Amino acid sequence: MTEAIALDQVAADAVALVRAFRANGAVSFQDVPLADARASYLKACAANGVAAQDVAAVRTLEFPVADGTANVRVYRPLGSHPDSVTPLVVFIHGGGWVIGNLDSHDSLCRSLANQSGASVVAVDYRLAPEHRFPLPLDDCLAAIHFIRDNALDLQVDLNNAVIAGDSAGGNMATVLANHPEYQVDGLRFTAQVLFYPVTDLTASHRSYQRFTEGFALTAASMYWFREQYVVPGQDLSDARLSPLLHAEGRTQPDLFILTVGHDPLADEGIAYAAAAAGAGTVVMHHHLPRHAHGVLTSAGKIETGRTLLTQAAHFIASRFTAPR
């Protein structure tokens, strides 16, 4: 086990949150019962996220999944005409496939909608361990089918579509953008926006060894999330779990990727950006060496998070063309 990174190595706008986390015992998700982990994550996102902006309209809709139903929440951007068709962003929330929901990322989605000019459709996939791999991913695929089949009602332009997600949501977003078994006729993503994504669930990168304590997400957290998500014996090199291992030589949709230095996922995210660029993908990679995982869901307290959220929204807007 390594020692916790000293606070003077943490970005100035993030020190207060890290200091408070450590002063409160540095209790992370794997240290408490599942229900408490889920509740504390929602509380932290509400306390630390960006202020919830007004949008033109919000709707929560039900869609069918295997053996049940799930929900999407549709955010129509402020200033859009009620009868107009807008570009589309499909957003997949993070939380290790185990925690998080539509509410945890509500303010983030509102900001993305308003700043990009797109309707953001957030997916409330069912969580592990109650629904293990590949069910959360399959729920997201079902949501994309639902969006395609209801594009007229949703007033979204399927020719101007971007997929986005943070952490575990970033993992599923890039799989949905690239994996051949998850492509949907009539809705192809022209770009992907990944915030500190999981790209290699084998956990074989050195950043796992560097971050074992002192932050909300550590190597132990990731091992716990993995244990909840996949069944024992699962091949962790599967492209749906570890897309990095299959990225070499494969051109992807244009990629905006954010990585942060104080994160067990740092090295695999950097490697994913490099592999995509090496294959000819258009890549915009932002690396924050002194920030930690979750900077965007803490963007109400961390100014750099707000800046990166705006930059991501501008990237999204730049990928849209005039409606066809």
From TrEMBL:
InterPro entries: AB_hydrolase_3, AB_hydrolase_fold, GDXG_lipolytic_enzyme, Lipase_GDXG_HIS_AS
Keywords: Hydrolase
Secretion signal span: none
Molecular function via GO: hydrolase activity
Name of the protein: Alpha/beta hydrolase
Any Pfam family: Abhydrolase_3
Species of the source: Pseudomonas turukhanskensis
Family: Belongs to the 'GDXG' lipolytic enzyme family.
Domain Alpha/beta hydrolase fold-3: 89-296
